[in-house]
Amino acid sequence: EVQLLESGGGFVQFGGSLRLSCAASGFTFSNYAMSWVRQAPGKGLEWVSAISGGGDGTNYADSVEGRFTISRDNSKNTLYLQMISLRDADTAVYYCAKDRVSCSSATCYPDVFDLWGQGTTVIVSS
Amino acid sequence: EIVMTQSPATLSVSPGERGTLSCRASQSVSSNLAWYQQKPGQAPRLLIYGTSTRATNIPARFSGSGSGTEFTLTISSLQSEDFAVYYCQQYSKWPPAFGQGTKVEIK
Predict the structure, then answer these.
(1) Which chain B residues touch A62 with a CB distance below 8 Å?
(2) What are the chain A neighbours of B64 within 8 Å (beta carbons)?
(3) What is the strand order of the sheet B70-75 is part of?
(4) β pairing state of A18-25 and A3-7
(5) Which of B98, B102, B103 to mutate to test the interface with A (most CBs of A within 10 A)?
(6) Going along A8-112, which residue ranges are E strands?
(7) Which of B6, B33, B46 best tests the A interface by mutation, with the highest count of A CBs <10 A?
(8) What is the pLDDT along chain A (126 residues), one digit of tens a residue?
């Protein structure tokens, strides 16, 4: 079955750290760029970060640049998001999402997301 | 950075009626525009990409149009399962950006 399954969310104190994981199955993981997209309570969708299929190209939203690090382990079909210096504004459901078009090069164009996980909730408490 | 603006914020429609949602980009995104549907407690689902191409298993009552900076999602005859929040997304330039959403509710 084609699916994405996030984990690692939870409660964290202001300024703390957390690592999210996203396990992929049912498709050739290394062929696709992957993204993290978040949704604050009652709010819309915000793209956070993307990584190329090979893991050698990354992009970040300004709001998380320097605090979040996206990575992947293609041998484990798993995507990660390391988050440090967490703020109240980082409280959200975090989704991992797969690009529709395959891209293995370091520089991928932005794309649409045709497969989403169920999300994992991060709550930053001050 | 491209900003996406959706209107209206809420659309009240009776079942069986047509619903028309709008999305405007702050600069041209060519045809690199997608639409998603999100129901409460669920992840978003891709409906339309490339402005007008329906994603896999999306019913024909969903159609998209537009180009450049002005885009429209039309639901020809709203079914009960279509009442949800809809987001547009540009993927012409980094960073990809979503609109703030349009909630389609039962009138």
Answers:
(1) 1, 95
(2) none
(3) B4-7, B19-25, B70-75, B62-67
(4) antiparallel
(5) B98
(6) 10-13, 18-25, 34-39, 45-51, 58-60, 68-73, 78-83, 92-99
(7) B46
(8) 999 999 999 999 999 999 999 999 999 999 999 999 999 999 999 999 999 999 999 999 999 999 999 999 999 999 999 999 999 999 999 999 999 998 878 788 899 999 999 999 999 998
